[in-house]
Design goal:
Elements: H1 13-18, H2 20-34, H3 52-81, H4 91-117, H5 121-147, H6 152-169
């Protein structure tokens, strides 16, 4: 459109000083901020990132999963070698119960790690809480049924799931909403 020599009155007083070119740049910048990496428009609230603390919890869960999985494989080896009596466990029944606890804890660590990475409420938050309860039950069972003594190692088995459960139910409660 040809210029008539007269400037059109801008909608905002500041734009009268800088001209209409600034107004079009601001509009383009606003649209660029709403467009995601793949060119799909997203709203600001939907574009929020996962907090670094939740990512850290998930990574630690995956590391604990790998360690727990090694423990499960070790217990399977002990079970098939018949060394349960020598290791102080009360026969094959005690070993199978311990194997079941460790297997459930391993699966819960893996699934809760996936849920935390996806910021999922049920898979991340609730399974992390369930992980704490199962770890606590395992520690109580080991104290009551097997060792009959309280050990610092048993506390260590419950500390990480307790910290994770407290964090996902307090600090990161609003971030795990999907």
């Amino acid at each position: 459109m040809p210029s008539t020599g007269r400037r059109k009155k801008a909608k905002f007083p500041i734009l009268e000083i800088f001209g209409e070119n600034v107004e079009s740049k601001v509009r383009r910048a606003s649209i660029r901020n709403l467009v995601g990496k793949r060119g799909v428009a997203v709203m600001g609230a939907e574009r929020s990132q996962r907090p670094g603390g939740v990512t850290t919890l998930a990574i630690i869960n995956f590391v604990e999963f790998a360690i727990s999985l090694l423990g499960v494989l070790g217990l399977v080896f002990v079970y098939f070698r018949g060394a349960a009596v020598q290791s102080g466990l009360s026969g094959n029944t005690g070993l199978l119960i311990l194997l079941a606890f460790n297997g459930v804890i391993s699966v819960l660590m893996f699934l809760s790690g996936i849920g935390l990475l996806g910021c999922r409420k049920i898979i991340g938050r609730h399974l992390t809480s369930l992980l704490f309860l199962v770890s606590l039950a395992k520690s109580v069972w080991v104290v009551n049924a097997e060792s009959k003594q309280f050990d610092l190692m048993l506390v260590a088995l419950v500390v990480w799931p307790l910290i994770a459960a407290v964090l996902v139910n307090t600090v990161f409660k609003d971030d795990l909403v999907r």
